[in-house]
Amino acid sequence: MRRIGAALAALVLAGAGLGAAATSAGAAPATAAQAAAYPTGWGSGTKSGAATGTVPLKNIRTGRHDCYDRMVVDVPGGGDVGYHVQYVDRLHQDGTGDYIPVGGGAVLEVRVSAPSYAPETGTPTYPGQVGRPLPGVDVGGYSTFRDTRFAGSLEGETQVGLGVRARLPFRVIQLPDRLVIDVAHSWTSSR
Asked: Residues of the signal sequence (predicted)?
């Protein structure tokens, strides 16, 4: 009887060891996949940051990088620029609600707490025209960006539509005098 009990205990322990080894082996690829994923701060959810002033924006520019495409909103003298960035089904202009078509598989709405005009005079500081591509920005040949549209400026906030290939992870970086929006080429860090 003792021998049967000992043999049964040995089989149970051996089975538990095999199960643990299988679990560890199964977890290894998940850990490797997590290591290749973008770090904290990237994702497709809404991102926003507080404003510190209403200095007007001067320029919007874009650039290409190995793993992401970048949009930069320049606000000289603006300190930390407030923002609200999110994916939307369709871009609608603030104030009028007019639909503004934006090319691409997904639309990222970028709202910046900086007007495109001088608040004291109303004089334009950025030459954007509602519904038109951003002046001086050509996203042809980009991996992720497909289109840009100026949606206007209302009550100290400027609205831009950024057409991207698909709903991909993005991050927003507040820097003195500028706001940076990076959109990844994929959901992993590989090119």
From this structure: 1-27
State how far the Cα of 158 lies from the Cα of 23, in Å rounded to an integer: 51
- Residue 108 makes CB contacts below 8 A (sequence gap 6+) with 85, 86, 87, 88, 161, 162, 163, 164, 170, 181, 183
Nearest residue to 46 (alpha-carbon basis) of 130, 167, 127, 138: 167
**Among residues of the chain, what percentage have pLDDT more than 90?**
66
Buried b (16+ CB within 10 A) or exposed e, 115-144: bbbeeeeeeebbebeebebbeebebeebbb
Residue 111 has pLDDT above 80, yes or no: yes
**Taking residues 148-160, what's their average pLDDT?**
95
Counting every residue written for the chain, the total comes to 191
Q: What are phi and psi of 53, to 5 degrees?
A: 180, 180
| Closest-CA residue to 143 (of 66, 29, 40) | 66
Confidence at 19, pLDDT banded by 50, 70, 90: very low
Q: Residue 154's closest CA among 122, 121, 108, 127? A: 122
Positive/negative CA dihedral, 32, 37, 41, 45: negative
What element of type H or E holds 59? strand 59-64
Rounded-to-integer distance, Cα 137 and Cα 110, Å: 15
Chain-centroid distance, C-alpha 62: 14
